[in-house]
Fold:
Amino acid sequence: MSKRGKIINVANRLPITIGDTIEKSSGGLVSALDGAATDQHELMWVGWPGNSDLNNDDQLALTQQLKFQFNFAPVFLSSSEVDDFYHGFSNSSLWPILHTMSTFMRYTDEEWHTYVDVNERFADVVGEYIHEGDRVWIHDYHLMLLPQILRDRFPQIKIGFFFHTPFPSSEVFRCHPRREELIGGILGADLVGFHTFGYLRHFRSVALRLMGLESDVDHILHDNSITRLGVYPIGINSGKFEEELQSEDWKTTYDSYRENWKNRQMILSVERLDYTKGLLHRLDAVDQFLNANADKANELVFIFVSVPTRGAVEEYQSLRERLERKVGEINGRHATVENSPIHFIHNPVGFTELCALYALADVALVTPLVDGMNLVAKEYVACQETESAGVLVLSEFAGAANELVNAVTVNPYDIQQVSASIKGALEMPLEERQKRMKYMRQRVMQYNADYWAGSFLDALETVEKQPDQPIEMADAKHDLAERIEEAKKVAFFLDYDGTLREFEDQPHKAYPHDELLALLKKLGDQTDIDVSVISGRKQEDLEKWMGGYPFSLIAEHGNTYRMKGTFDWKNLSTSNDMRWKTRVNEVLEHYVGSTPGSFVEEKASALVWHYRRSDPEFGQWKAQQLMSEVYDMVSNLPVEIHLGKKIVEVSSIHVNKKAAVQHCIHGKSYDLILCAGDDQTDEGMFQIEHKNLFSIKVGEGDTHANYRIKGPSEMRALLSKLI
Structure:
């Protein structure tokens, strides 16, 4: 059977250990992706092999060996690049921010530039192997720029990105000096996955507050592209644990440990040595428990396994020293002749030994201050037999708490609560322990790493590359230029705000700047093009800014107009009944009071509630509320409601841009009509029935226009080039 395309899995580190021989790791991610590589798909890994400063011959030899033996492609880094990219920017800058601990963040421009260079290097290696039909799955914060780099180079390739860490609120993430570049990099992916909905919600908030990108719950539209969002809780390699629990080595180790601690209850803590794991807080809770339960000092043993990690980072060196000092202090206070309550192990523990400890432990303390998922909790559950079930004490700030709902959840900052939970767990009746563990174990074993990888890759497979979109203007510039050149009589109907001119927080500041003034003069010099500026602005604004040009001016979306060569404004509206404005204005003013930064603008035929200066997320929420309330109130009134760019507008039903354009072109034989606008109020222009209509949507969103252009600056450049 022929393969449809590769899955190129890109991570900071290749799953190998290089010694006298090269050994492949057997973690959950490796096994899950091996399972996803069916007869239909080849699996390939790209990542750093773990050694530095190899000469060219050694790099070539290792590249060939890894490709032949494992289908891996190495990205080689020098020792200085490892320091700046991995220990520096990734783990001293991004890691603390993502874990809501900005006080630990250390940023330098030098490390940022190395981070950019290394992400480009990863893209170079991916580019050597990528072909049409391949899918790229990028993992974690080390490679946040890589999706957009690959998108620029390979527009048609499907790209997935998964955050294995938490994702913080916008208030925290905005502290990072390179926040926009990092989010922009991620948005190059077709699909971005998170462990929990809370992390997804934070990402959407950051995109809105920092980039101004509004979104739905499952996608973000940006730059005429779409990035899907999803929740995919990672699981463990459940098959590996099941196999281990049946092995003779495990049974021997388990029996040995049980005999060693046969008269004591065991409380187990297994974590990497990291300040996010709450190890110091956990020890404080143990100390408090022992203070309150001194009679149990000989009946208990606390096993603290602290796996070494990132020893080159100063904060981790300091943490280890503090941990060892605190363990010594607690043991000094509570040790007896028969027992030292805390056994602190600062070394890696073999898989067989770890599974034996998991199975034997009466209580597992998994209380990180914040954690993307925390697979230790799931590993403990996997090793627990229902008959003699232990108790999982789990931090509410671990992603796993969303799934393992039968755990005893605690606030790791509440030392008293964690201490009391240790006591409660040790005294919990067997029947309740069994009931809690049975449900959790079923979930852990079923929704494992295979399920996680399969669900993400299935979602990536079904992602549409682009939403239904008009043709990009770049593909039609030549055609439009030719049609204008051939036409004898041309009409331009151009919206102002969001089309000719960028938005401003305060509308009165959106006056024509020098670039736009130069364009307006060029347009005014054209004798064969009738130019109309059609805007939601009041006639006073249009008169002040463009009254000196030979344009027709159409104000308030078509309520009044002033034809080219005249000075008198006339009404286009067929009705002067504006009695509805009093009732609607009361509602809008109420929302001004409850939404700081918002205000109401009154026009002759409309009322507009502006919230551009409000908190973006709060303003968006209030706008939806306002829309709903006004819809109910005006259902029998002659008005229309428009949700525009940071506005809610209520206007007379007799006023619209479609009717205004039709009035202006009536009786005139134009060879080409160009209409350009950016929001809902412009859609009527795009639906005019005219065989020579050329319509342009400026910006994102659904539209009836034939073509799309990114923003006002591109629109100005297009018009300047055309004339």
Q: What stands out?
A: The radius of gyration is 32 Å. The mean pLDDT is 90. The chain is about 40% helix and 20% strand. The chain has four domains: 5-17+27-231, 239-446, 471-572+655-722, 580-652.
